[in-house]
Amino acid sequence: MPRFAANLTMLYNEHAFLDRFAAAAADGFQGVECQFPYAFAASDIAQRLRDHGLQLVLFNAPPGDVGAGERGLACLPGREAEFRAGFAKALEYAQALNCPRIHVMAGLAPAEAERAALQATYEANLAWAAELARADGRDVLIEPINTRDIPGFFLNRQDEAHRIVQAIGAPNLKVQFDLYHCQIVEGDVAMKIRQYLPTGRVGHFQIAGVPMRHEPDLGELHHPYLFSVIDEVAAACGWQGWVGCEYRPARGAVAGGTSDGLGWLKAA
């Protein structure tokens, strides 16, 4: 069975954020991830991790001005200094929280921009971030995201992401393979797991039911089969990563909502 990490940004919204660590541990999770931890002191998060015997396995670098609609800065020419400052802050949190992976969001492609210029900026920023993180023993991840959830997002496909990682050539730059996004954009998810996991370029998986992004036992993807594929390929190639549970519980922020929807985890 894969190792599952609860995404504390999307799960356990019936609790305040710092109380979600206890809720995840009570349900048997040993790993957690979140999107943006920066509203809380790293020392407070670290204490929750210690109190409940949890490992923080992933979080995102600052994405820019979310309130203004920004979803990452890495591909945006002219924002390099802001990107670097944000990534340096993420690295400080990763050090304090003993987190081995930082996800860098690509950002939205401006309608007037030439894709070649965005691509060059993106790759230069990723190369810089990977070099900085490598000295600290941490991985930098990039994630293809579907344009239904985030219209205009720069990076959408697995093959694009793997080409970028190969072109940059940093050993700690890897792909965050979200089965939900992959199914919406491309499909053929099981074969893509078989294709890409043995390459050493997959740093993390994430899951959610398709199309509504609820529990993985709701919707068109058969996750028990996909878990067995991950197990099979991981055993053959030695992959030992995590599968992040980044979905919106169908019951929403109600008492028992997240826990009541974990029948899929018990079955796995």
- Strand arrangement within the widest β-sheet reads 1-2-3-4-5-6-7-8
Structural class: alpha/beta
Question: Which stretches of 5+ consecutive residues score pLDDT under 50?
Answer: none
Shape: globular
Mean pLDDT level: 97
- Name of the CATH architecture: Alpha-Beta Barrel
Number of helices: 10
Number of structural domains: 1
Order of helices and strands: EHEHEHEHEHEHHEHEHH
First-residue to last-residue Cα separation: 7 Å
Task: Name the CATH superfamily assignment.
Answer: Divalent-metal-dependent TIM barrel enzymes
CATH topology tier name: TIM Barrel
The CATH C-level class name = Alpha Beta
Residues in helices, as a percent range: 25-40%
Q: What's the main sheet like? A: 8 strands, parallel, barrel
Characterization of the model:
- The chain is globular.
- The protein has one domain (3-267): Divalent-metal-dependent TIM barrel enzymes (TIM Barrel, Alpha-Beta Barrel).
- The model has no long low-confidence stretch (mean pLDDT 97).
- It is α/β, with parallel strands linked by helices and 268 residues long.
- It is built from ten helices and eight strands.
- An eight-stranded parallel barrel has the order 1-2-3-4-5-6-7-8, surrounded by five helices.
- β3, α3 (80-97) and β4 form a beta-alpha-beta unit.
- The termini are close together.
